[in-house]
Amino acid sequence: AAPLSRQARRRDSLAMAVGLLPLLSGAAMAMQAPTPRCGGTTSSLTFQSSSIASKAPFAALENGYVSPMLQGFTISPLQRFAAHSRRSRAVCVMQDGPAEDSKEVEPKAPSPSSKAGSTLESIYRFSRPHTIRGTLLACGTGVGRALIETPSAIALIPALMPRALIGVLALLLGNLFIVGINQIYDVEIDVVNKPFLPIAAGIMTPQLAWALVVASGLGGLAIVKTFFSTLIFRLYLFGTVIGGLYSVPPIQLKRFPLAAGLTIACCRGFLLNFGVYYATREALGQAFVWSAPVAFLARFMTVYASVIAVTKDL
Asked: For residue 59, what pLDDT is reported?
């Protein structure tokens, strides 16, 4: 073949220099990038190139042939390594079939035991445990005071224990009714202020909450009506009603600071302590008499509950 003219040699040298730039860049990137891995058993592999798009003459090396423009020139090992590295950075896509046929792994359905445990936990949180502790403490102080005043009745404790436990159950049911109906009507506020409560957190449905509230309210009234005197039943009914009106619209006593404070003070202060003490004396066969320690306890808890009513939402 006739020797190339000086102008043609310059043109080919310029083309080769332009082609070297993307190859050298690709080699540097290949040395820094990790080698792609393909795992698992595959029926076919599809490689999607992630190399730098280039129309330079040396891009032909990726397909295993030399551009006609470069025929007669020597391909260095660096150039071949750069082209191979650019192919190695391809994305390895494993396919066992069409992509649209792939299915997401579905989570395992919770077992019945885990469902039951979750339900019991939500009911426990729904009952507001700190209010349960206050109720149990009032039961202990009222019963203890009545036994101190009647030492001879201590021997009757085993025989009276079933009735005492029934009375505690009635108080806990009344407590559940009051705090439960409050959570039902305050759910929009609780989502912001108390998102840990079960209805606000979405772990208890309103239907279950209503079932618990209705069952606890009717159950507590039925227990007190059956096992205790008319006076104790009326006191229990009065506390249940005003405890419900604290939250239920349109009355909703909690809207008025004074009415809200008096409601909480009456239920937690006077009715709970006086009622437990009187019911214990009635069970022991003792007539009711005003006791100075019980009067002090009722007054103290009334003031204490008033402070709680004012400061609990600060």
From this structure: 43
Q: How far apart are CA 272 and CA 30, in angstroms?
A: 79
Backbone phi, psi, residue 235, to 5°: -65, -40
DSSP structural state of residue 4: P
| Cβ–Cβ under 8 Å, residues 212 and 124 | no
Identify the weakest region by mean pLDDT among 100-114, 129-143, 197-211.
100-114
- Give the amino acid at 278: Y
The C-alpha atoms of residue 215 and residue 173 are separated, in whole angstroms, by: 9
Alpha-helical runs (H) found in the chain: 6-32, 77-88, 112-126, 129-149, 157-185, 187-193, 198-201, 206-227, 230-245, 257-265, 272-283, 292-311
Question: CA 310 to CA 291: how far, in whole Å?
Answer: 29
* Cβ atoms 244, 254 nearer than 8 A: no
Distance CA 169, CA 185 (A): 25
pTM of this prediction? 0.63
**61 or 209, which is more confident?**
209
Bridge partners for 92 per DSSP: 47
Assign 40 to helix, strand or coil: coil
* Tokens representing residue 220 in the block: 């507590």
Q: Round to whole Å and give the CA distance between 161 and 205.
A: 36
3-state secondary structure (DSSP) of residue 188: helix
CA distances from 41 to 25, 103, 215 (A): 34, 17, 58
* φ/ψ of residue 103, rounded to 5: -120, 140
d(CA 204, CA 88): 54
Coil, strand or helix at 44: strand
